[in-house]
Amino acid sequence: MAAGATDNPVFDVVGVGFGPSNLAIAIAMKEFNEQQRRGRPLRARFVERQPRFGWHRGMLIQGATMQVSYLKDLATLRNPSSPFSFLSYLHSRGRLADFINYASSFPTRIEFHDYLEWAADRFASQVDYGADVVEIAPSPPSWNTAPSGSFDVVSVRPDGGIERIQARNVVLATGLRPHVPDGVRLSERVWHNRDLVPRVERLGSGRPRRFVVVGAGQSAAETTDYLRRSFPAAQVCAVFARYGYSPADDSAFANRVFDPGAVDDFYAAPDTVKQLIRTYHSNTNYSVVDPELIEQLYRAHYHEKIAGTELLRFLKLSRVAEIRERVDGVDVTVESLVDGGREVLAADVVVYATGYRSSDPTDLLGDLATDCLRDEAGRLRIGRDYRIHTTEDVEGGLYLVGATEHTHGISSTLLSNVAVRAGEIVQAIVARADDRGVAVATPARQPAAGS
User: Fold this and answer.
1) Residue-range definition of the domain harbouring residue 134
2) Distance (Å, rounded) from C-alpha 130 to C-alpha 110?
3) For 17-59, where are the E strands, in sequence order?
4) Are residues 164 and 212 in the same domain?
5) How many secondary structure helices (H) and strands (E) does the chain include?
6) What tens digit of pLDDT does each residue of 207-242 get?
């Protein structure tokens, strides 16, 4: 619909981004609507930059498994009987008995991505794929089809046209951005691991001689393993500032930090305790690797040393000091953190597996950003219901998914609480409804004071 049209529908929710978080919200809204026996159903629309649904497609490595239980899917922890559960997906694919015999709580990443696509396909009519949101602003007074306090979500369509969507509430779920060290420029020979699989496939039958992988977390270890298996004649050099990969703590007690109730604990805790929790349990998620993969890589390296063919190298206590691209390769200068000694590796490709950072949620808000309240450290103030605290001038709801680790804890960017979080946001939106004409449900948790 063209910008400026006066017959635009007013959506209860417009979701910016359509990854697992907003997909879970779409599911929670659908199930809420189906539970109501009267009143107008909630209406939602989503805008996604990608041309089709995708979640870390570049790391869909054959055989790589999830690090979370299949029960932490899009719906089960919120509604165990949901038709959008992973078990419902397996049943629809005719693999439920096979998965039971598989005897693991951790599906492969490829299978879980297929599950996400299976769920996303059922909302295709509500998603504008290939559209890029460029602005979120209060609806102008001339737009009298919307109640006071609505927002205009402006996006650029794939054909270059401008679309303006009206919403009473906006859920910002713009995901994570690949991170590389300052000064690193990605290119045809300098990659981030987000593009690993398609980049490797484009190498085809080429005969690369050496790869350099930078990083010490799960994705770095998986990248190293994938490259050595894909190109068995090539040398793969892993560079990290540690002695080696550190194992992830996925023990039963440690995993409680990802429980839904842990969000309540974290949110209520003073800042000093928040920092303690993040420090104590950082080894559940940050720069850590599945112990089985660590053992697999170490054994492969050890056997190569026995055979005298060390194609898998680990450059410990080191950093990449300089990168110089050539026509036919890239020179990577690796510097020892111990004595400053340097070694130049002539490589075909260097892969940075250096993680992600949350997007700045205020980038799209324009002047609205000045109405978003911040704490003493300059961070956004977020209610327990994930609503951004704003001045009284903002009547509509701005909800944030992802960039909330400072208020909601380690699981903020992870799948662990995606189902419960979606339910909490939907319940909060329903509880704040004033003129929608739908039955108002009691939220699972009341919005925090001042939200």
Assistant:
1) 10-175+359-431
2) 23
3) 44-48
4) no
5) 11, 17
6) 899 999 999 999 999 999 999 999 999 999 999 999
